[in-house]
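Researcher: Please translate sequence to structure tokens.
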Amino acid sequence: MPEEEWERFLHESVTGAAGAPVEPSARARGVERRLRERSGQPEGWRTYSPARPRRRTGWYVTGLVAAVALLVVGLFPQQVVSWFGGNEGGQDGEPLAAESERPQEAPGAEPALHPTLAEPFRGSPAARWADGAAGITVPPAKATGWMDAAQVEQALRRSRDFLAAAGLDSRVLRGERPTKAIALLNPHQKDVQEYLRTALSSTAPTPETDPLLLFSRFRPAQAQLVGDVVKTRGRLAYEEGERGALEVTADVTFVYPVTPAGDGGRGAEVVRTIVRREVVMNWDDPAKVITEPGTMSLVSYTLDMTNGGCSAPTGYFEPPFGTADEQPDEAKQVDPYDRSKPIETGDGTTATDNDCATATRS
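Model: Translation complete:
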């Protein structure tokens, strides 16, 4: 080997040849291995990656349920209150279904809460009854007696109109003449026409000529209605009567909240006068009975009332404001909301006994 080549070999053995591969150190090999194991871009030594949040499924479900509950309370507060027994007999609460037949028992007990001007039906089963004529159920019409189905439907509608005109008309309730109701009565029925003349003109009616037997009236100087809502519950039924007539029977309870006349203060006393009427009406065949189109004949009319006065008839309901009418200890007790039995009458035809019973609730 030439001497120059030998010297170059010795020099490169000490300093290393240019371009010769370099064996990486152990630290370098470890860094290279970690980089290969990681995916994506390498992370700088001054960068920060926030910790991945932990899943909290339980909290999410709880929050969702709470949100739904708040939404239900906001949309249906009355129903929610009643679910938990918080109705307290007030005006909240689910309305009752229409009465299509005689109930089997009296309504359940209500919390003993007194009525107020803002909630005159508070603490009463009537809080869940319908307003006005809407509480009087009219059955489906079918041909009966001398009438076809359309005529029966019209007669039923007019029968309800009579009850509304006699027991719900605001002018009649103030003691004015029941003109609309009278217009639906057969003018050729002599006994009824005589009763009307006597009852509506006498200043001292008898039990037989008391206008309250057919019409609801309050003396304006003594009592006034609270608001303009009268609660009702009842129904009409019909069948073929004498001489092929359509015989319609009405059984309806009216609840009138009243306060002393002129006492409109926040602390005014509120009394509920409760009146139940059973009225039987004949829509007669004009070929067999003298009548006028659109009018009917009265077969019977029966009245039962609570908080309407226990003294001699005056022609008006007289709510017992202040101190209730004195009644004997042995007075019969009645539930004025019990519609499961017919009205008890003195003679079985037109009027109740003159005795005054004690109401178990109002």
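Researcher: Any highlights?
Model: DSSP finds eight helices and nine strands in the chain.
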